[in-house]
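Chain A, query sequence.
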Amino acid sequence: MKIRFRINKKIKIYTFLFICLFVFFFQSNSLTLNALPMEKLENKAVIEELRLKVPTEGKAAWLNAEKEIWEPWLSSQDGFLGRQLFWDKEKEEALILVNWKNKKLWKSIPMSEVNVVQQKFEDNVKTALNVGENPFKLIYEGELDKQR
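Chain A, predicted structure.
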């Protein structure tokens, strides 16, 4: 009787362990597992996303300043892969997508350096539009991880 009880107890334990292992292996998604480690994300391509308010009357000045100020500076940065500029006529908004080799290279650029370039951009725009302050307000900034 004691032997039968021990065998039943061991069967219950092994059954429980088997169920736990089954759930662990078959409920996990390999894409999720690959996405978890941060060191893998550091080496993946990333896209910087910026949205600006760009009124119709300032569109040409915005495009010109982007070409004269940001484009040459970005091209000199390690990890920069390119960028795309979009403009929504109805919303009067610009979307800037900057492609980076990886997040580590992008984030290694000192903010003080970015601020100097931004000030040059704003000075260019203010002169072109004959205004006292930058008319292109930042609406949103974020990042997109490139998927497979």
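The longest strand covers residues 80-88. The CA atoms of residues 5 and 11 lie 10 Å apart.
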